[in-house]
Amino acid sequence: MSEIKEACGVVGIYAPEGENVAASLYYGLTALQHRGQEACGMAVSRTDKERGNVCFHKNLGLVSEVLTKEVVEKMDGNIGLGHVRYSTTGASVAENAQPLVLSYIKGTLALAHNGNLINTPELKWELIQNGAIFHTTTDSEVIAFHIARERVHSATVEEAVYKTALKIKGGFALVIMSPRKLIGVRDPYGLKPLCLGMRDNAYVLASESCALDSMGAAFVRDIRPGEVITITGKETRSEMLPEAKRCAHCIFEYIYFARLDSVLDGVRVYDARIRAGRMLAKSHPVEADLVTGVPESGLPAAQGYGLESGIPFALAFYKNSYIGRTFIKPTQKERESAVRMKLSVLESVVKGKRIVLVDDSIVRGTTIANLIRMLKEAGARAVHVRISSPPFLYPCYFGTDVPSNSQLIAANHSEEAICEMIGADSLGYMRREDLSEMAGGLPLCSACFDGVYPMDCSGIDG
User: Fold this and answer.
1) Is residue 421 in some structural domain?
2) Structural domains counted in the chain
3) For residue 456, what pLDDT band results from cuts at 50, 70 and 90?
4) Are residues 313 and 417 in the same domain?
5) How many CB atoms lie within 10 A of CB 18?
6) Which of 62, 300, 378, 449 could lock 347 by a disulfide, CB 3.0 to 4.6 Å apart?
7) Mean pLDDT throughout 226-253?
8) Across the chain, what does the average pLDDT equal?
9) Within this chain, do residues 234 and 287 fall inside the same structural domain, yes or no?
């Protein structure tokens, strides 16, 4: 139940034998709903028709709200892409929903983007000086415009995409649809995930393997960091961007973002979270009667803590899954009410018990404080908090909505002070040196914890 917001999710499919892919896109986007709940959309086209024959629909809302049965049934194409959005740049308005679809000299281009660029102002100013007019406030539109401009001087659309990918800096996973090609791009650091799957003769691109499963596609491989993959009918072609100094996979995919049943860059997300809990139990042991987690994100790490420590694991909260989205409340009392709407304590489980409460992060501290209060009101003798990530100390510039330093409780208070502020009996965070082992030994970006960014981020307003 983290206060960190999800990244976006992208999916694309090319069925060369003419199958309508609209329903498949819907299933893929539904599987990626956890990555963004503000807006969504899809675009489809037929490769055997005139250029520019793209049907698309997007709006604010969940996949089931925007892409209704009536909408999906009207869409017909054998190539398409989709997007679920949480805004890290650009306001949460319908104009910023994706995919972006634009007409230009070579036909129509559609683009779905997960991530965030750090050089958007320079790229945008370059376009403005040449007369570009923007309809959104997203960096995704800047990418699309640069591809369109490069296409005028390029032999193929993939060449234009490659030239644009050389210009943009940051974390990004792109799925791009031209009239007859589907293209995927992953940033050279591998910050944002992207994978390839197949269903019969159809190729599928997606942010996570769980989307492939829901579309009936078999996982083929992860798109390599810095890879530009072009799907044309029944074949693929790849070209690599210049290598980064090092790979830097986003650690928070494994801590929180990715769905529990996904596999990212060879690492099973569920296994990573179990390992996180085990390492917490080793580094921060405590005498207690039961271990529990904050639904849903804290549960696997809590299970791991219980397995390692021998303390029984139990569910202490009931989560109401039928109440829809809760918007930010203007007063503290209303925020507390929103937490109680979503979660209620199982009093018979916690009464008289010393509890280890596991969650994935503490950002501002308000949510965890409310949960500790609820447990103690239900009769818990003590609540020992364990967090399966290190303290947040620095902002993220690559598409994870970590607030500015002034809003990060750990950037302004000691661990002892935080423990007192949230009302816990003890507090323990995962050690930074344990992160790589938790993520299966992958090279990581953990800049939000240690301030070591994989690229130069000086001068960016954090």
Assistant:
1) yes
2) 2
3) very high
4) yes
5) 11
6) 378
7) 94
8) 90
9) no
293 touches 300 (CB < 8 A): yes
Residue 329 banded pLDDT, cuts 50, 70, 90: very low
Count CB atoms within 10 A of the CB of residue 166: 12
Confidence of residue 341 (pLDDT cuts 50, 70, 90): confident
Which residue bears the tokens 């109680």? 340
The domain boundary residue, chosen from 244, 278, 312: 244
Assess whether 195 carries a catalytic annotation: no
Residue after which a domain boundary falls, among 211, 229, 244: 244
d(CA 273, CA 169): 30
CATH of the domain at 316: 3.40.50.2020
Q: List all residues 6 or more positions away from 129 whose beta carbon is below 8 Å from its beta carbon.
A: none
Q: Which domain holds residue 294?
A: 268-441
The rounded distance, in Å, linking the Cα atoms of 258 and 195 is 13
pTM of the model: 0.92
The alpha helices in 2-96, defined as continuous H runs, are: 22-31, 63-66, 69-74
CA 271 to chain centre: 18
Q: DSSP state, 363?
A: S
Backbone angles phi, psi at 177, to 5 degrees: -120, 125
Q: Which of 18, 77, 73, 70 is nearest to 52 (CA)?
A: 77
pLDDT digits (tens, 9 = 90+) for 345-358: 999 999 999 999 99
**What distance in Å separates the CA atoms of residue 459 and residue 462, rounded to the nearest whole number?**
9
| DSSP single-letter state for residue 208 | S
Domain of 107, CATH number, reads 3.60.20.10
Flag whether 452 is in a domain.
no
Q: List the catalytic residue out of 8, 40, 250, 396.
A: 8
Question: At residue 13, what is the residue type?
Answer: I
Pair (276, 224) in one structural domain: no
For 208, the token pair is: 């996570």
Residue-wise pLDDT for 37-87, tens only, equals: 999 999 999 998 766 689 999 999 999 999 999 999 999 999 999 999 986
Q: How far is C-alpha 259 from the geometric centre of its chain's CA atoms?
A: 9
Establish if 133 belongs to a structural domain.
Answer: yes
pLDDT given at position 122: 86
For residue 231, the one-letter residue type is I
282 and 231 share one domain: no
Residue 455 lies in a domain: no
Greatest CA span in the chain, whole angstroms?
A: 72
283 and 175 within one domain: no
The span from the CA of 97 to the CA of 85, in Å, is: 7
- Burial of residue 266 (number of CB atoms within 10 Å: 0-12, 13-18, 19+): exposed
Sequence length of the chain is 462
